[in-house]
Amino acid sequence: MTASFLHCRRCLYTTAHPLGLVLDDEGICSGCRIHEEKDTLDWAERWERLRTLVAPYRSRSGEQYDCIVPVSGAADSYYIVHLVKERLGLNPLLVTYNKYFNTALGIRNLANLRIRFDCDLLQQNVNPHSVKKIVRSALREFGSLYWHCIAGQTVFPVQTAVRYRIPLILWGAHQGLEQVGMFSHEHEPEMTRRYRKDHDLMGREADDLLSMFDTLKEEDIWQYRYPDDAALAEVGVRGIYLGNYVRWDPKAQHEQMMASHGYRTAAFARTFDCYDHVDCWNYMGLHDRLKLHKHGYSRVTDHASREIRHGRITRAQGLALVRAHEQAPVPHQDLFCRWLGIDPSGLDFIADRHRNPAVWQAQAPGQWTFAGWSTHADEPAAEAPQDLFTANDVLAHDGIEGYVTIGKGHP
Asked: Across the chain, how many H-helices and E-strands are there?
């Protein structure tokens, strides 16, 4: 991998990043350069720009929803709703997609969010038989068990905006901007159908699945279909990223929400970040394993690169964290296999088919050597820092025979 791709001299990303990343003459990546804007932009002025932008969408009567906010039981949901409800003073309709891989902690966090912020919440539950058919096909053909999650999480808010005629959708941070500097904050990118397809969905829209997989039918995919341009234009739907107007710092934001609104966190084996994706059994497990297979890096590299850019750890410390967590065992694969109805050996066979030959070499049947750049001895690492993040809860798995369906709430 190091022979074919260059790595940033500041963070831990390489030019092999699937979202696209370039290095400048100093060997610094576009993501790090755009991150520098966080320390130079006038965020007070940008917040006023946001207030002006959302003002026309505010309900004059106060009896209608002003906007839609996509949420889950993790990620940046609490901080987003805090900004929308408590700082902007808007009345949001919260929407969430049931990914079916729910942890009890994630359901607790989602219910607590609704209660603490006193918001209405609309949930989408797609037929689980259709979800399993999509997962089987997507896992086999392009090594993703998460296509349906990303598709549902990004389309249900837009469908709801059209259905309820609520034109404004407020999202958190733009992944392409935050990770690889795809845009400047000053470009103020908005949510688009094209970005969703090309980057979120790996180039496959719902209707593409019908032509690729003969096992899927119209009744399986229609709920993942993006509204057409005429419907979007009639309502005037637009998706605004709050990260364009707020200095985005997930660690600091989560800790603020832990202190003020009761957000709960949990530790993972495959990363040091205790705050991210505690709502899902698979995101930091099998999904993360497949990411390492396909791209030669996993979520811990994302977390370490972010912390390096924020100046909380050095590059050498970040590399030590990656090496400590990158090859950690994948938990809960048995739970996924029972849910999908496949044999663990079959899952391993499918996963191996998607290993990137640039970073994985087969030594014998079922035995692989990883040659990702983080394994190279010429990249020295410092001692891995401890206690960067706080786990104030646990992901209790004992006795669970299947995934937990989103319930009515939490006391």
From this structure: 17, 7
